[in-house]
Amino acid sequence: FYHMDLYGSKERFDIFPEELSGRGDRSLGDTRRESALSSEKVQRPQEVGYDLEKEVAELAKMYGLDEDREKELELLEGHLEKVESRWPSARTEKAGSQGFIYNTSKSSSLLKDPSQSTKQQGLPEEASQGENQSKARADDEAESNIWSREGLSSSGMSDEWNSQAVLEEEEEEEEEEAADVFCSTCKIPIRAFDKLFGEHKDHEVAQLPSAVESEKEAIHKNMCKLEEQIAQMENVASHLEEIFITVEENFGRQEQNFEVHYNDAVQVLAQKYEEQLEALGEEKRQKLETLYEQLVNCGKHLDTCKELTDETQELFLENDKAEFMKTLIFSPHNYRLEEFLKKEVNLELSTQPDFEERVIDVSEVEQLMNSINATPAPCAPVINPQAPNAATGTSLRVCWGLFSDDTVECYQLCYKPVSNERHSDEQAEHTLKVKETYCTITGLLPNTQYEFWVSALNASGISPPSERAVYVTAPSPPTIKNKRIQSCENAALVCWESRDINPVDSYTVELSKLTDEENDIITESIVGIPNCEVLIHLQPTQKYHICVRAQNLGGSSERSEPVLIHTTGTCFYLNDDTAHPLLAILDDGFTISCDELENPECDLPVYDNSFTRCIAILGSLIPFPGKHYWEVEVEEDTEYRTGVAFENTPRHGHLGANNSSWCMRHIITPSRHKYEFLHSGMTPDIRITVPPRRIGILLDYENCRLSFFNADIAQHLHTFNTRFQHYVHPCFALETPGILRIHTGITTPPWTAL
């Protein structure tokens, strides 16, 4: 546990658990005996002339103790100062005792630096070796005597002082020892020694590294919680910033709303004022005109009165009575005066000076004032992006939100299909009004993109439209090509086609293994298929239901119509793209026929991949290793070829005439039925006595064999031993008019094993 133990007594290692039985705690006397034994070990090398300084230097260098020497000296000096301050009487003793105390308190310091130890003991370096040895023996004897007397008799110190000094030394050594375990009860690191003998003996402890890892994990969890709280507070702060902005925007809209309404009210009042002022001016004009006309009439009446008065006065002043009477009777003046006096004079005013009391109609203004609403028009909603699996082939679920406290009565949702054409803006727009912040739109086209935008409405008006978002409906269910399915005992290759114009993201194949009990169905899924075909590994002699779904951003389509696959044998189909123009495939898909051979190189349409010289066709076999077996039913009088070929076998040659095809040929000679097994135009000399009517073909990739059998009598005909570099496909050809019937899905017969 300490580096000093390397040089101390071996009994120090008794603190390990395996050596604890029967020992207990070490007593003070044991410690003193260990020091005495240590001093004896130091003395022996000196007695035999051992080079102590060299050995100590090597050991110190080996264990890295050079750097600890100065630190130990400082600790020792501090300890001596404590002892001197506590026991002043010890300072009155002879100086040699101090050096002796130093030497016995740290036995390892002598080993680390013998020269320093010699200096502390007051021995000159120039002294001879004999003197050094004698003094060392004397000191060692004195040391052993002192420890054996259980005290320092030369200094006169008491047993209490000695015990106290030893305890302090042990405490200092314990402080220097590093903690290596963790007390779970006290939650502090401790030494293993304390667990065994100290106050932590009955406490639960753990290894310090595991405790550190546990605490670090707890700290990490707390840091994660702090990070979550920081993220939450950042979100809250961001939301508060948005609210601040919304408040400012609402204030601006409210201020504008008030200004518009109050301007309208002021405009109405100004209009009423102008109307009333104009009516008042018109009344004034009419009154003044009436009074002026009455005034003019009064003036005319006064003038007439004055004129008649003057004429009457002249007549009255006439002195000649005859002339007076003559003039009075025959003068028009008298008649005019009578007529004038007959007229009544209207002395009343034609109009009153008071104006009509006018009442201003402010009902319109009141209506305007009442129409001022404290609730402004709402702000634009925010439409959400499309959520996964939120669509079907004919419907979409659209969601949006309003990140403000505006009052909304309803929402107006608009949408139209997205088109890549130039006149996409002319697409018909559809509008719906909804109360909630979501809506499910039906009657849509499958796998089609639609553009949506929404506005909020209330009594004050309609909000600006939201940003436009593009949603897409789920695809239509794919259609599995039943006649294009290829399978064997351990796998199946399933092909399908999409019914949508737009491409989809991926496909998912779901397969169910049918057990003996019809209700017991085990379902598995293969997801993320990018193309319209997949090779599925299956178990032999089982029945599977397989269906396909199409996937896009909108979700998953409905299941396709399931197909039933039996893994009892190999199933393939005839590739009509490779068929010669004269070769016909009947309705069952596995019977080929040829009616005429006069002009094999006829003018019928020829495809790029079809045979042109040999009236042949290739089948599409599943590209899977293992064994594949099928049978061909032939007629005895038909010449034919059947076997396998690479997909890129030449279309202008005959099967078996090149190195990319292997086939069995039947030809009829005048003497017999001849059978050839051709590859690169070569055939072995084989005679078949029983013409086969049903030919079994076994393709074994693992054993590198292609074998032909007479299936009716389980007779082996021939085997090609070759290692196919690529996957091959069944091939069939007719050299005379006739029919070949292919049988697939047959379990490999046991007699095919060679």
Tell me about this structure.
The protein is an alpha+beta fold and 754 residues long. Among the domains are: 209-370, no CATH class; 382-472, Immunoglobulin-like (Sandwich); 479-567, Immunoglobulin-like (Sandwich); 576-752, Jelly Rolls (Sandwich), CATH 2.60.120.920. It contains 13 helices and 33 strands. A 7-stranded antiparallel β-sheet has the order 22-23-33-25-29-30-31, with no helix packed on it. Strand 18 and strand 19 (555-556) form a beta hairpin. Helix 1 (28-47) runs antiparallel to helix 7, helix 10 runs antiparallel to helix 12 and helix 10 (208-316) runs antiparallel to helix 13. It is elongated, with a radius of gyration of 62 Å. Residues 1-29, 31-50, 86-131 and 142-158 have low confidence and may be disordered. Residues 263-294 form a coiled coil. Residues 19-49, 104-175 are annotated as: Disordered. It comes from Drymodes brunneopygia. Residues 552-751 form the B30.2/SPRY domain. This is FSD2 protein.
Task: List the keywords.
754 residues; alpha+beta; Immunoglobulin-like; seven-stranded antiparallel beta sheet; six-stranded antiparallel beta sheet; 34% helix; elongated; B30.2/SPRY_sf; FSD2 protein; Butyrophylin_SPRY; coiled coil
